[in-house]
Design a protein that fits this description.
two-stranded antiparallel ribbon; 2 domains; mainly alpha; binds zinc ion
Amino acid sequence: MIKLERPNRPVAFTAAIEHALIAIYLESNKPVWHDAPGVVDALRTMSREKCAYCEASIAERNTPSEIDHFVSKDNDPTRVVEWTNLLPCCRGCNSRKGTHDVLAEPIINPCDIDPKQHLLYADGYFRPKTALGKTTLRALDFTLDRKLMRAIYELTLQANNRLEELAEKAAAEPPPTKGNLTRLRNRIAALMEDGQAKEKFAAAVSTAILRSPDYVTVKAFLQQADRWDAELQNLEDTLQSHALL
Ligand SMILES: [Zn+2]
């Protein structure tokens, strides 16, 4: 989970439409959010087509798009299409969270609270740093979805393996030629791209990269060779903002 920046409510989704949709929901109990103009697209753009909770690609995990009501419809039906109450979500997280009452037992809303303040990722698992983190993980219980946990872990392993290979190249004798240095610089940049917000499981991948001793080795080597540039530093700053350390 990474921090999300919620954009302004879509202009086409007027207060009059919202009131009409709430009335339809209260009467029929049928889903109405897909009739809120611009909302689904705006939410999916906000999360870069990922689940706001587990960061899986929604396209890979879903057939139709799902929207989580942060305050569930059972707990407050009048917020059924409230812009700030809607989050893009995969089917698994949506069903595991279910009707969890966030008013009675708050959890992280990634649009409002930075997950890194409350969660860790270590040894293939998300773990709580705080009471809010604990409630969040209990409500979302990612561990029930073994396929999801394995997919996240595999990406972190891949990152670690690539870093190990790069660290070996950095330590090789004789030292890398100018061309090889450029290749090394480009390969670490490509690896850091995998922890950027648009990529799935960015929080876990960012954590794996920053925690790796091989990353420290490669970075120190490039710094010494005067090849640690502003673009690499920007990529690292973003990893820092996502990492659950
Ligand atoms: Zn999810």
